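Second attempt. The first submission of COMM domain-containing protein 5 had a stray character pasted in from the spreadsheet, which I only caught after the job came back as garbage. Lesson logged: always re-copy from the clean sequence file. Corrected sequence (138 aa) follows.
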Amino acid sequence: TVNALEGKDCKESVRLIAESANLSEEQLAFLISGMYTLLREALRLPLSTFKQEVFKEDLKELRIPEDFIVDFSSVVFGNRRPTSEGTALIQRSRLPSIQDFKWRVDVAISTSSLARALQPSILMMMKLSDGTAHRFEF
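This time the job returned cleanly.
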């Protein structure tokens, strides 16, 4: 699971675990997926607000065995954190960012409709990093 977080191939490790464990393939996939998700989410939290003692207590409440708690804590709070954290940031899905944003305010001074006269309208155009463009009018 740690190797997967660091972007390394872990097929061989999973195969060895599957051969030695008395678990079905579905159970093993469920466990590995849970461990991966738990570690990935723990690495997202800043160390300034995330305390090791609280993390260990939370894992105990989830009835995770003590040897796993020690291993998880060493990954989240140990010297492998920067590597795992960096890879987790690179691999996460990202939303498109704004590349260009233009706007203007139009005020109709004279129209055939009195209700529209002197009412401003705001026009905006936004281009995103995925190539899409959106136009808005308020």
